[in-house]
Amino acid sequence: MSAPPESFWAELPLGRGVALLVHDGNGLAAFAKPAGTLSHPNGAGEEPRSLLNARYVLDGEVYEWTGGDGAPRRLWLLNRLDSATSGVILAAASEELALAMRAQFKRKQVRKIYQAVVFGAPRQAVELWRDLLAVDKQGGRVRTTASAGHVPAESQMSVLRAGRGVPRVTLLRLEPRTGRSHQLRVQCAKRQLPIVGDQTYGNFPANRELAKTAGTKRLFLHSLETKFDYEFRGQRFSFAARAPAPPEFEKLVLQR
Fold first, then answer.
1. Mean pLDDT across the stretch 26-49?
2. Are residues 192 and 130 in the same domain?
3. Fewest Cβ atoms closer than 10 Å to its Cβ: which of 7, 83, 102, 146?
């Protein structure tokens, strides 16, 4: 099976604000997902709010639609971002490639870099965060805590820019070494560095006040870059995608 033609990528039913960043000759692709857009629809009527405005089959983790020529089209989702998180998200144009990539992801061979704006400031400019988390998944609801857990989580943190206003905010670079649900949000909150706009683990009074003064309510967490080498059909390839951080990230820090 060969990779899809350029017309496949040109005719994707992209969701509002979604952009195709890059795709390779095997059919591996990266998209830039805006904050507020779903990685995939969770129920009827949510397709227009999703990465693709198309039917989604949960069992196969695949989008399905009909092309302009009347032929069926499919795109397999490889990872997810919380709807409130923006940035790089991956997909594959064939099931064979999707299965190979998901197996590689389980071996922790993917490097991901995030940016976040948090309330407060870390004690050190560079820190390695290690925690044991408890992850509870019930009925599509995910909640993670950093107490009484047994799931190891590790992230590398470095300060990019520190604000000087009140409340103080800081722009961080975060590189998770593990891929736990809500990992970065919980690890930041545990260190009294809640991510600005986090409606689950954040500082709710500070969020409300900042929304009034800065006029923004979004979660300030962005998947900036994803890169990795991968093997497919006996050959080795490199893949990298970068979605520039929204301008409001640095602007918020400079304004404080």
1. 95
2. yes
3. 7
Domain count, the chain: 2
User: So what's the pLDDT on residue 184?
Assistant: 96
Query: In the chain, what's the furthest Cα-to-Cα distance?
Result: 58
- Nearest partner of 249 among 183, 155, 174, 145, judged by Cα: 174
pLDDT at 139: 62
Whether 143 and 202 map to the same domain: the answer is yes
Bond into 34 cis (ω within 30): no
Domain that holds residue 72: 6-107
Residues 126 and 210 in one domain: yes
- Per-residue pLDDT for 137 more than 90? no
**Domain-embedded: residue 30:** yes
- pLDDT by residue (tens digit) across 78-103? 999 999 999 999 999 999 999 999 98
Distances (CA, A) of 131 to 9, 199, 229: 40, 22, 27
